[in-house]
Amino acid sequence: MTASHEQAQGPFNPDIHRVGRVLCFAAHPDDIDFGAAGTVAAWTAAGVQVSYCIMTDGDAGALTPPTGRTSLPCATPSNGVPRSLVGVTDIHYLHQRDGYLEASHEVMKGVVRLIREIRPDVVLAMHPERNWQRIQKSHPDHLAVGEAVTRAVYPALENPFAYPELAEAGLEAYKLPWLWLYAGPEERENHFVDVTAQVDAKLAAIHVHVSQHPDVAAMEATVRQGMHLNATRAGLSGERSAEAFHVVAINGPGTIAGF
C-alpha cells in the first residue's frame, strides 16, 4: 500500500518495518478523515489495530452560528459514523475545548498515558509546523496537537521519571518506534501511501462532516486533486491517489538512548 518510489527516500520501508498497532491523534473529529483516512482504511483492511484520540469535541466547528444549528459540528463524540467507515472502533477523547487546545502538561500527560496504554508501533499526529501554502491546514488546535504529541513522545513517554503517577499506576515507560505527522508543510513530507483503493472510503468518511463545507462538491474535488498531486510527487504512474506524511524515526537501530 506504500509508494515504492519513496522507500529509498524516507526512513520507513513497509517491506522491513511492520506495523501491527497504530494510535492516531487529531484536534477535531474530521481531521484524520481529511489527512489520513485512506491510510487508516488500508491499515485496518490489512488487520492493523488502529485507535483514534480526538483531543477536542469539535463543538466550535460548524459554519452556522450556535443558535440555529441543524447538524453536528465536525461530528461530535456521539457520532462515531466516520470511524466505522474506515474500520476504526477504538476511539478516545481528551475533551479539551475546541479552539483553546494548548500543548499543556495536562494534555501531554493524557497523550503519554494513552500511548503507554496502547503501546503502538506508529503514532500518527498532526504536524506542529505551520503550512504557509494553505494556512487552513494549520488551525491553532492542529499545531497544538503536533506540539503536544511531539513533546510527549520524547522525552516524557520513555522517561520513567516523567509523570511518575503514570508509572505508579502500572503504565511503564515506552520507546515509540515511529511518529508519522500529517497536514504539515509539503517540504517536510518524506513518505507517501498509495490509497487508490481507499478513496471511496475516505470520501465517505469526509462526507459525514458536511457542516464544515459550504460547497461539498468543490471540497471533494479539492481532496481528489490533492491526492492525485501526492501520487505524482511520489512517482506513482497512472491515475493514482496518495496521502503524504512526514515520518520520523523515534527509536531504531541508530537511536542514542538518553533524556
List keywords for this structure.
259 residues; alpha/beta; Rossmann fold; 17% strand; globular
Fold topology:
Elements: E1 21-26, H1 31-45, E2 49-56, H2 81-84, E3 90-96, H3 105-118, E4 122-126, H4 140-153, H5 164-168, E5 178-182, E6 191-194, H6 199-207, H7 216-234, E7 242-249
Parallel strand pairs: 1-2, 1-4, 2-3, 4-5
Antiparallel strand pairs: 5-7, 6-7
Helix pairs in contact: 1-6, 3-4
Subunit organisation of the chains: single chain
Rg value: 18 Å
**What percent of residues adopt helix (DSSP H or I)?**
25-40%
Distance between the termini: 35 Å
Total number of β-strand segments?
Answer: 7
CATH architecture: 3-Layer(aba) Sandwich
| Rounded mean pLDDT score | 87
Q: Which CATH top level class fits? A: Alpha Beta
Q: pLDDT under 50 segments (min length 5)?
A: 4-8, 62-79
Quickly give the structural class: alpha/beta
- Give the strand line-up of the largest sheet: 3-2-1-4-5-7-6
CATH superfamily: LmbE-like
Task: Describe the global form.
Answer: globular
Q: Provide the domain count.
A: 1
Largest sheet: 7 strands, mixed
SSE sequence, one letter per element: EHEHEHEHHEEHHE
CATH topology: Rossmann fold
Number of helices: 7
Note the beta-strand portion. Answer: 15-25%
